[in-house]
Amino acid sequence: MTDSLTRILFQKLVAMGGDDYENGELVIDQGRIVEVRSGVSESFAGVTHDWSDCLILPGFVNAHCHLSLSGLQGRVARQERFVDWIETVVAENSALSWRDRVDAFHREAQTLVESGVTALGDYFSHPELLVEYQALPFRQMLFLETLGFQSGLAEEKARSVETLLREHPAGAGSLLQLAVAPHAPYSVSPALFKELKSLADKLNCRYSCHVAEVEEETQFLSRGEGDFLELLTKREAYDSSWTPPGVSPVRYLEQLGVLRDMVAIHLNYLEESDLNRLAENNANAVFCPGSTRWFGRKAWMPVKILLDLGVSVGIGTDSLASNDSLNFLDEIRLSEEMVPELHRSEILWLATIGGSQALGIEKMGLESGQPADLIGFRFGNSEEDWWNLPFDPVRRQVDFSMVAGEVIFQKSNIKGGKQ
Ligand SMILES: [Zn+2]
Fold first, then answer.
1. Tens-digit pLDDT profile for the chain (419 aa)?
2. Fewest beta carbons less than 10 Å away: which of 4, 52, 283, 348?
3. 363 torsion bin: left (phi>0), alpha (psi -120 to 50), beta (else)
């Protein structure tokens, strides 16, 4: 964070829900916005970034990813059965060298930065990677991913999660917060779901899970059979004392008492009654268009209906084991293709404010008092509607990006820069 005042000159600023401003300035002190206004002061005692030919938006929030799996790019083919894909991911992930894992992690973090991501919701399972996360320039909500279908393991697993969370409390001004993620209803016992939920409530941290990603999950929960039974049995991870609940994944989680405030990832295969259930439980949703398309899913999240019910919805890339790229601009373009009933400005809302609400990070609406996390797009033609800029089909990068008042990326051909 810089000590002196900083200001940004802009052509247009859209706060995504707040006010819009034209030909104005945004002033930053200690990483936070202190003023936004149309019109430019003649004198300013501080650093000026002249981006007066640019559109400014709140930064993008990639609300679901597994950055540590980036080294699996190109190593995991699509498979007929989801469980075969899981087995390949597990095998390739354990064969990945630490050096390759860390190199790919940082390479892809840079892809996120350049494509405008200023906050990331990431699932991770290697605590040794925390030092690498700490080196990243953007805000992060890091979910410690936990598996365990045998109920006898629940307490021990939850205690080790608790130890890690207590060892790494988010310090004041830290860009990084830790959170909890039971992996999925087919890989986590009811006891572990409950232990982790009470831990999240006790430590006041976010709680997330992959939910209703595939049809086989519904089959497993309704009758206790199918591919997941086979997978768990083969891996000697099944628990024969488990009784299939006979209901949908969302309803199952509600019955366990763990759906409240959950950050639910995917939600591809929902029953109609699940929609209200999610809203009533104040659950949040993360839509992963690239991953859903990569797998060739037949159904995906009814984004518009959930938004109309008041559910916070964000957008996530998921990992490079099930997506061809972590470029976030690809995800917003694909969101438009997959959810054509949304206007481009609404998709940009999901990509920014929706994601920050879903992850439970600070308000990111470019208002006074909020963090200066923002991105810029240069106007090619000043008559262009602002919402079209991020959707340019050949665009791979934003023109600049800032987190907590620090410029973390700037295209070399941009007009302005410091004065
Ligand atoms: Zn995932």
1. 555 799 999 999 999 987 899 999 999 999 999 999 999 999 999 999 999 999 999 999 999 999 999 999 999 999 999 999 999 999 999 999 999 999 999 999 999 999 999 999 999 999 999 999 999 999 999 999 999 999 999 999 999 999 999 988 666 668 999 999 999 999 999 999 999 999 999 999 999 999 999 999 999 999 999 999 999 999 999 999 999 999 999 999 999 999 999 999 999 999 999 999 999 999 999 999 999 999 999 999 999 999 999 999 999 999 999 999 999 999 999 999 999 999 999 999 999 999 999 999 988 889 999 999 999 999 987 688 999 999 999 999 999 999 999 999 999 766 655 55
2. 4
3. beta
Measure 74 CA to ligand 1 centroid, in angstroms.
17
- If asked whether residues 165 and 42 sit together in one domain, one would say no
Residue 418 lies in a domain: no
Same structural domain, 34 and 126: no
If you measure from the C-alpha of residue 278 to the centroid of ligand 1, how many angstroms do you get, rounded to a whole number? 19
Q: How far apart are CA 314 and CA 297, in angstroms?
A: 19
Calculate how far, in angstroms, residue 45's C-alpha sits from the geometric centre of ligand 1: 46
31 and 151 together in one domain: no
Q: Which residues contact 124 (CB under 8 A, 6 or more apart)?
A: 66, 67, 68, 133, 142, 143, 144, 145
* Number of domains observed in the structure of the chain: 2
Q: Residue 354 in 3-state DSSP? A: helix
* CA–centroid distance, residue 318 to ligand 1 (Å): 5
Kindly give the distance from the C-alpha atom of residue 274 to the centroid of ligand 1, in angstroms, as a whole number: 20
9: tokens are 């000159």
Distance 321 CA to ligand 1 centre (A): 10
Ligand 1 midpoint to CA 66 (Å): 6
Instruction: Using the mean position of ligand 1's atoms as its centre, give its distance from the Cα of residue 257 in Å.
Output: 22
Which letter does DSSP use for residue 207 in this model? Answer: B
Q: Tell how far the Cα of 145 is from the centroid of ligand 1, in angstroms.
A: 10
Residue 185 has a CB neighbour count (10 Å cut-off) of 28
CA of 93 to the centre of ligand 1 (A): 14
Question: Are β-strands 60-65 and 117-124 bridged in parallel, bridged antiparallel, or unpaired?
Answer: parallel
Range of the domain at 54: 6-59+365-410
- Distance in Å, CA 396 to ligand 1 centroid: 23
